[in-house]
Specification:
This protein is α/β, with parallel strands linked by helices. It has two helices and six strands; from the N terminus they run αββββαββ. The model has no long low-confidence stretch (mean pLDDT 86).
């Protein structure tokens, strides 16, 4: 459950209100609600509940997770945060808004 605690801590430090217990929870800030899933052994990807999903994974799981999400092409925006010890980095963020000039 260390990964769950780290995921909750990351979102709290980013100013989100964290709701729920366990490996799946909600993080909310202003208008944005993110459905957070910590990845240990995810056999099925979450359904399209919510507009934004963030997957928190360990380094060994990140590439496979990104490949599965890319192939599945879910209807929600998704990001991956990789936690390695006490450090973390955003491995994949949703694309920003398109800008035309």
């Amino acid at each position: 459950m260390r990964l769950v605690e780290q995921a909750r801590s990351i979102f709290a430090e980013l100013g989100y209100t964290v709701e729920g217990n366990g490996p799946e929870f909600r993080a909310e800030r202003a208008w944005k609600v993110v459905h957070v899933n910590t990845v240990y052994d995810m056999n099925e990807l979450p359904r399209g509940d919510g507009q934004f999903h963030c997957f928190v994974a360990q380094p060994d799981d990140a590439d496979e997770l990104e490949n599965r999400l890319t192939r599945h092409n879910p209807a929600y925006e998704w990001a991956i945060i990789v936690v390695d010890g006490e450090e973390y980095q955003v491995e994949r963020a949703p694309p920003g808004p398109s800008v035309t000039v």
